[in-house]
Amino acid sequence: MRATCNFFFIMSFLLLPAIVFAAPKAELWQRWQTNDPQSRTHIDHAVWANFLDQYLVVGTAESTNLVRYAEVKPDDKSALTQYIASLTALPISRLNRAEQKALWVNLYNSLTVLTILEHYPIKSIRKISSGWFSSGPWDLKLIKVEGIELSLNDIEHRILRPIWQDNRVHYAVNCASLGCPNLQAEPFTAANMERLLDKAAQDYINSLRGVNFTEETLQLSSIYDWFLVDFGGSKEALFSHLEQFATPVLASKLKTYRGTISYQYNWDLNEQRSSF
Asked: What InterPro entries does the annotation carry (predicted)?
């Protein structure tokens, strides 16, 4: 009996990396499909905009946008908490689709930042555990909307991905890591959604975090490995997507590339450290 228990313990340990790194599938939560096409309600994201203005450091074309977590004042953290509470208190099911999409993206991003602040200082979001065989806070039930508890994974993989089926969502939600697509410098809204999604895709694909030709191989972000199904399910479909947002020079390289592909991702915190 003891030997059997030890065997299963060892096997569980060996299987841990596969469990930790498995990307969630998009599984529609029917409950959140409800919307009101006639709604003219517009959500105010000014608090989130003000937070980004104060604490987001916009990088260059080749660097990640960074957050000055260490410098966030208690009043601004409190305001961020209240902003998230105000979003979760809204009758989301009675909004139109465009307002819903913007709300869910902003809720995901602001909630991620708040989660980092509540565990700061921390080197990586993956240091925040949500239970056994987990690495990261994504399965923690952090909020309650319309009486239902939700996690970050619920928002991304059970609401945003399956409802809108827009692969640019991967460039919109931010996981507080250096390898992630940028946390945008402005909130998403119904009015700016298309422009900001295209910008986010262009920024990432044309950075070394997204697509990087080295002397030996083509190195892509692990996002394109984890969520290949969202980018067409094949190398050909993925390359077509990348070429759509790539610069002419990069698009030309992708179009003719027939070599090896590797994947990489940097989970270090997207933090701007103080210089003093």
From this structure: DUF547
Check the CA dihedral 7-8-11-17 and report its sign.
Answer: negative
**What does pTM read for this prediction?**
0.91
pLDDT of residue 162: 98
User: Token pair for residue 118?
Assistant: 């509540």
At 63 the pLDDT is 85
The DSSP string of the chain is: -HHHHHHHHHHHHHHHHHHHHPPPP----GGGG---TT-------HHHHHHHHHHEE---TTS--EE-GGG--HHHHHHHHHHHHHHHTS-GGGS-HHHHHHHHHHHHHHHHHHHHHHH-S-SBGGGS--STT--SSTTS--EEETTEEE-HHIIIIIIIHHHH--TTHHHHS--SBTTSPPPPSS---TTTHHHHHHHHHHHHHTSTTTEEE-SS-EEEETHHHHTGGGGTSSHHHHHHHHHHHS-HHHHHHHHH--S-EEEE---BB-B-----
**Model pLDDT, residue 11:** 40
Kindly state the tokens that stand for 190.
């119904």
pLDDT of residue 134: 65
Residues of the chain with pLDDT under 50: 1-20, 276
Q: CA-to-CA distance for 108 and 204, rounded, in angstroms? A: 19
What is the pLDDT at residue 201?
98
209 within 8 A of 200, measured Cβ to Cβ: no
Determine how many CB atoms are found less than 10 A away from the CB of residue 53.
10
